[in-house]
Here is the input.
Amino acid sequence: MIDGLDTQDVRELKGVGNAMAEKLARLHLNTVQDLLFHLPIRYQDRTRVVPIGQLRFGDEAVIEGHITGAEIKMGKRRSLLCRIKDHTGTLCLRFFHFSAAQKKQLEAGKRLRCFGEIRRGSSGFEIYHPEYQLISEEETPPKATQLTPIYPLTEGLTQTKIRQLCEQALERLTPYNLQEWLPDELRHAFSLSPLCDAIQFLHHPTKDVNLEQLRSGAHPAQYRLSFEELMAHQLSLIGKRLKAKQDVSVRVPNAGALSQQLLSQLPFSPTQAQQRVFGEILQDLGTGHPMLRLVQGDVGSGKTLVAALAAASVVQAGYQVAIMAPTEILAEQHYHNFRQWFEPLGLNVAWMIGKLKGKAREKELADIASGVAHLVVGTHALFQDTVEFDRLALAVIDEQHRFGVHQRMALREKGMKHGIQPHQLIMTATPIPRTLAMSAYADLDCSIIDELPPGRTPVNTVVVSDQRRQEVIDRVKSACEEGKQAYWVCTLIEESEALQCQAAEDTALLLQEQLGNLSIGLVHGRLKSQEKADIMAKFKAGDLQLLVATTVIEVGVDVPNASLMVIENPERLGLAQLHQLRGRVGRGQAASHCVLLYKAPLGQQGKERLSTMRETSDGFKIAEKDLELRGPGELLGTRQTGLWEFKVADLQRDKNLLDDVQKAAIQLHNHYPDRVAPLLSRWLPNHDQYLNV
Ligand code: ADP
Ligand code: MG
Here is the structure.
């Protein structure tokens, strides 16, 4: 193979010694090829002279004109002002540092060409410290023929220097030493220009280019590079997934009698969607390789039952199942449900949360380690080193968005210690927008429960200012008097957990004063688990009519008779969180209502969020909007640094490419397998790390 530019050290270039190489290394520029992919962040147009009359503040422009005068101004800072004029207007050059010779040189009547950023000065247009040259009337020096690239810099590296280096790198660039890994077939199918052309162009766009298009990243040359980069990411995820699938896991041959028995105990039958997803899970479990499946289903779609059916099949095959929830309240609820479902079948359910101490903890640990426990429900305490499973074969992770990828992986390792790779079933109510599904989650197979159990009524959402708080309180009162139950959720997102609990306590007191005849409960994060559990149980049993809570009830809480929810300060919460909260109502037969009680006045973002909530209950639409408002990093709940560090691409901006990128990646993977590794090392030099996340 030819010596590629990726093997040529930057020190081979003129003007790069060890010291410069070190500076370049700070920008991850180690090879000549790295320089080629070090693209300008923007461009200056020095190809044409702009008439002063056409300037706009903030432009960077070349101007030519005659000097009408130069003088020293005292003001706050001494400065040299030089006024120039063309046939359309006048402009002022301002120098804070200048020499006597300089002032002398800027003589009235002389002609000047200058370049700089147009600012708003006391006298109209000004340029501070322009680059300038005196020119003659008859013979003007040549202007730039191409746009001037502006590169990202680091300390000790100037634009001039990096330009020279990129220039040298471009001189070396040929299709032989920077190989085109995208086959012609793919390039034609997706209208992608040759790689070398795109790189040449982006370092030196021709002057007729549409600058606006270039700025927004929509130019075909940028598209070409983003496409290849996204493809590389996609290929690495495909690789990761295939690798995970080669591992050996427990084979669960069929659904088994236990899951049938479980179903026959229920007062309802599973929806079509639940059955379909259970079928998809069974297929995975039957392969003998680890399942990595994400189940998405809107709040209330019945994910727990699907997990329970999968768990029953695994237990039937003789193995243990762990069910992990992100909060104690939810873990508690799952524990309750699973015991109700499984104990009649003669199975044991163990329990593990951080706060469990002493003898009780030891008993649970012993049951888990000996295999007496068939199922274990808990929080992330399940990851602790002291928890030893006997024969874990399935980990169910509920509401994945609350767990980091690392926690997910830690659980996988727990099973690995015993030589079995556990199956993983990840359940989320926060729909994963396509952008993320095809990137961060592309290593998972995905099932969707796209149907709610029958008889649900959509939640009617109203947005009310806290100036009408009293009306809202009255409404809670009359709903509860009619036998309904209600939530009152207190949120204080920026402040500490302690403050949030305090706010809930205060609110509970105030409401109790005003609603003396209602029985009101309070739950928040600082209560002991037993206290929380008791209150939730009372609310579920209908002994409490109103539950004042912090966002601890956000996830998974299921009390079908609760049909009214008031959320305070909803404008401070993210959309996904609001959707989760609202999902606590609308679970029974009664028409449900959600009151978003905001603090006036509302900011723009707040307005947009609340009206989205009022207009739709479609989790997917809400998630897309959330992504738009917040960006992918935050939505993932974990800073997956690395995954989002693209050289050229931008997931949000380039999301329309993703479908094609995925198709192209699959084609390349299937038909040109030799090209995968070079593409990965071009774009993801550390991609081995990705494989081991
Ligand atoms: P989520 O998907 O939000 O986790 P859950 O699993 O908590 O939803 O289910 C919500 C409620 O719907 C629970 O009370 C559950 O018992 C009930 N449920 C689940 N599946 C069905 C079904 N097929 N028919 C009727 N009710 C169901
Ligand atoms: Mg749930």
In short: Residues 303-304, 398, 556 surround magnesium ion (ligand 2) (CB under 6 Å). The chain is about 40% helix and 20% strand. The two ends are 32 Å apart (CA to CA). The first strand starts at residue 42 and ends at 44.
